Amino acid sequence: MDPSLQSLVEKVLEDAARRTGMKVDELKVLSAESVTWSDGSLGCPQPGMMYTQALVPGYRVRIAAAGKVMDYHASARGGFSLCPAGQAVEPTPNDRI
After folding, report:
1. Rounded Cα–Cα distance for residues 24 and 22 (Å)
2. Which of 15, 78, 85, 96 falls between 20 and 30 A from 4, CA-CA?
3. How far is CA 57 from the centre of its chain?
């Protein structure tokens, strides 16, 4: 795993543990991948917001926590956010990094 992605996964696990009250070792990384987001929303658009209309390299990390999947979206610069269930947009097809 590339060092940037590994560092991001560690930060995401800490965030997921804080949000759920679980220990990091109780969480499971379902997937961690480099992707290309279709715009500046990083695949998690918020209602009423406008975003840069350009392809954005980044990452998607999915964590299993107490029977639920937590879907984190990130930019290549390392900023990340938890995308609420039902709000996530898939990365650009065939343009994965």
Report:
1. 6
2. 85
3. 12
pLDDT block averages, 10 residues each, the chain of length 97: 88 97 97 95 94 94 95 92 91 62
How would you class 85 by CB atoms within 10 Å of its CB: exposed for 0-12, middle for 13-18, buried for 19 or more?
Answer: exposed
For residue 33, the surrounding DSSP H or E stretch is: strand 28-37
- Amino acid (1-letter code) at residue 32: A
Task: Give residue 77's pLDDT.
Answer: 86
Rounded distance, CA 11 to CA 72, Å? 11
Q: Which of 58, 44, 40 is nearest to 87 (CA)?
A: 44
48-55 long-range Cβ contacts below 8 angstroms, 24+ apart = 55/92, 55/95
pLDDT for the residue 92: 83
Amino acid, res. 83: C
Beta bridge partners of 55: none
* Amino acid at position 67, single letter: G
Q: For residue 15, what pLDDT is reported? A: 98
